[in-house]
Structure to design on (206 residues):
């Protein structure tokens, strides 16, 4: 698989397969192609050459409802509180289960009864809520791009533990992060990228 932006190849002949129900940590320097790879897998952009099969399907749009994605932008509404945000996103998935929204907040360590507007949340709380949004619809595949960005160390460790528990529920998770040490206790495999290629894979927890 190749992805060009103009003449620049962000991905250069990436060929790989990944087993389900594992937690993969994608690491590498800035510009290595990590975020581009996640966005292609999420169906947010098309590869310039090659193809991607996700959850056994070649057309990612057909399985988009089975994918959870958390990018650099939190995609939250500052004027709403946490539960109001999750209710809105649940509606986009055709869900009306109030308890599912509460469970998603509790899962990431937030109080569903908190009525504070998201615009008044700390960065750590915003990242937690963004993670709750990504897992709200119980996706099989979860793609997270720098979920610990601007999060304090304690909150980041808590979020890593949450991801381990979510994986243990039978989910497949990819985490792009510059803070790989946070994921050491829960990662199944570290995937090293450089210059748009996967240059190494190191299994853990074996």
């Amino acid at each position: 698989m190749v992805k060009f932006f103009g003449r620049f190849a962000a991905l250069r002949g990436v060929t790989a397969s990944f087993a389900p129900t594992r937690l993969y940590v994608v690491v590498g320097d800035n510009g290595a192609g990590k975020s581009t790879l996640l966005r292609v897998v999420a169906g947010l952009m098309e590869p310039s050459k090659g193809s991607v099969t996700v959850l056994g399907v070649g057309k990612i749009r057909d399985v988009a409802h089975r994918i959870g994605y958390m990018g650099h932008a939190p995609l939250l509404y500052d004027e709403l509180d946490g539960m109001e945000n999750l209710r809105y996103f649940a509606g986009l998935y055709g869900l009306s289960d109030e308890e599912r929204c509460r469970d998603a907040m509790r899962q990431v360590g937030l109080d569903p009864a908190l009525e504070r507007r998201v615009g008044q949340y700390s960065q750590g709380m915003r990242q937690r809520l963004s993670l709750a949004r990504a897992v709200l619809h119980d996706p099989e595949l979860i793609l997270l791009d720098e979920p610990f960005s601007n999060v304090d160390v304690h909150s980041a460790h808590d979020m890593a533990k949450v991801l381990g528990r979510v994986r243990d529920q039978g989910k497949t998770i990819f985490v792009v992060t510059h803070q790989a040490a946070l994921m050491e206790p829960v990662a199944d495999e570290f995937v090293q990228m450089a210059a748009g290629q996967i240059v190494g894979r190191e299994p853990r927890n074996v």
About this structure: Residues 153-168 form the longest helix (16 residues). Residues 39 and 45 are 6 Å apart (CA to CA). The chain has five helices and eight strands.
